[in-house]
Design a protein that fits this description.
- This protein has two helices and nine strands, in the order βαββββαββββ.
- The protein has 113 residues and is of the alpha+beta class.
- It folds into two domains: 49 residues, 2,3-Dihydroxybiphenyl 1,2-Dioxygenase, domain 1, CATH 3.10.180; 49 residues, no CATH class.
- The chain starts with a strand and ends with a strand.
């Protein structure tokens, strides 16, 4: 499996103009307003999650890769000494990986600073 981008989370100043841009201008598909994310689908494999400024979320980019490739990459992360965590607010505790659901289903996550 190739490494692809699964999703991206962005903090936005104003939610509705951001939705309008991605849906009306970029022609992406509005998925749902959630708490705290509003999801916009760029294609079958890539979702943009919008969160209003002040929401306790971390802007990030998530990659989708095979289990084997994930294990290889995670071993390299640990060997390099790069801080990681099982969620965005625990980076540096060097525990994990965590498990989350993305556009391609359940996956393991290692979040980096």
């Amino acid at each position: 499996m190739n490494i692809t981008i699964d999703h991206m989370t962005l903090n936005v100043k104003e939610l509705q103009p951001s939705i309008d841009f991605y849906v009306d201008i970029m022609e992406f598909t509005f998925k749902e307003v959630g708490d705290p994310y509003t999801e916009i689908r760029a294609n079958d494999d890539f979702t943009i999650s919008l969160a209003p400024f002040g929401t306790k979320v971390s802007e990030h980019l998530a990659f989708a890769l095979s289990r084997e490739r994930f294990e290889e990459a995670f071993a390299a992360i640990k060997a390099s000494g790069i801080p990681y965590g099982e969620s965005w607010d625990t980076v540096g505790n060097n525990r994990g990986p965590g498990v989350e659901a993305g556009s391609e289903g359940e996956r393991s996550d290692a979040l980096l600073s």
